[in-house]
Amino acid sequence: MILREAPPTSGLRPKWSDLIGAFRGPSNLEERIAEFLDVPEVQLECSGTASLVIAFEYLKTLSRRRKVVIAGYTCPLVVLAAEQAGLRIAVCDTVRGGFDLDLTHLGKQLDDETLCVVPTHYGGALTDVDRVRCFIQAASREIFVIEDAAQSFGAKYNGRPVGTAGHIGIFSFAAGKGFTLYEGGCLYGETPEIRRGLRETSTRLRNHKRLLELRRSLELLAYHFLYNPLCLSFVYGGPRRYWLKRNDPIRAIGDYFTGPIPLHKVGSWRRKVGCQALSRLRDHLDRTRDRFDALSDQLERACPEISTHSPAEGYQPTGSFVFVTFTSGKACDEALRVLWSLGSGVSRLFACAIDEYPYLSGRITSTTTNASDLARRTLIISTSEMMEERQLGAIYRAIRS
Fold this sequence. Notes:
Elements lengths: L15 H7 L6 H9 L5 E3 L2 H13 L6 E5 L4 H9 L3 E5 L10 H7 L4 E5 L10 H11 L4 E5 L7 E2 L2 E2 L6 E5 L12 E5 L2 H14 L4 H17 L2 H7 L1 H9 L3 H4 L15 H11 L2 H22 L12 E2 L4 E5 L3 H11 L6 E2 L21 H9 E5 L6 H12 L1
Parallel strand pairs: 2-3, 2-4, 4-5, 5-8
Antiparallel strand pairs: 1-9, 6-7, 6-10, 8-9, 11-13, 12-13
Helix pairs in contact: 1-12, 3-4, 3-7, 14-15, 14-16
Organism: Microvirga alba
GO molecular function: pyridoxal phosphate binding; transaminase activity
Protein name: DegT/DnrJ/EryC1/StrS family aminotransferase
């Protein structure tokens, strides 16, 4: 029985002082997030996926186009958000062996029906959104870019905050993220007109679900009790092992989702807790990036045949995990088989390429050879401070074998 489990990502550890300080603390979380990102303003929403639905619905008011192009290696929630907004979905493949969008394949997906493209950032790697946007604008000025920075709140690209290179940026504050409200997210619009339109769209779509907000508040409270190695072995590791025994890796890594996506207002108490936690985030990110750099270097020295996708110059991901890509899917599967049984902070980010999820069958019109190959050969290793030397030792041995 595993009594200590490391989380798959480096989340900001909750502190009881955040809850205590929230009773008399400020609730201006949107202003503080905007200050953190050094942008004029942001829009707080109940989840990153809800933010994406709002972005899609807003863009629909500007155009008669109804197709969205998403990354081949991304979260299934992106598909559900597009479907809820009534958009048709096409998929752009990644470059071979990497996470950037393949611009040759992207060009084949762009047409007179394309409303927007959604490039995705990751906790362990960033996508060149500037390159994608320039490519799209050369094809059409009527196609928007929504920057999916759900995993990358606090990341930077050439000194700029990630999430600000597209027309709209999306962030997630879900459980396990660097900064969390248990469930939450926010939007950034490039221009005052876009920001105004996003707020109007949110007001139009939002439901007053007080019971759901009460549930989220209780879940955030429980998160403070449970986000530690002992409790994670039960609430995170237990369900994962249950589904692995039943040969269901999609549910094991938490990749099975259903709609509809809720849209409601984040309550005052969670905003106040968020204000307290946000004040600790910069230090957390600095420590996480130090562990990310050290782990990447150690892995590349110990196992030169694998790739950790080290960031290019000017790229500064949050470093919440390290990508490890093996030479074959078989080698990756064998390492996972060993490490999943040890509670060692190792997992897959996504179970497969987005067009290969059985429960999304029929919703996607294109295939992604490179993303499929990448997903089969890639796992993630947590950079959480809960990782222990014995766990890292087991990881090195499993990867070398």
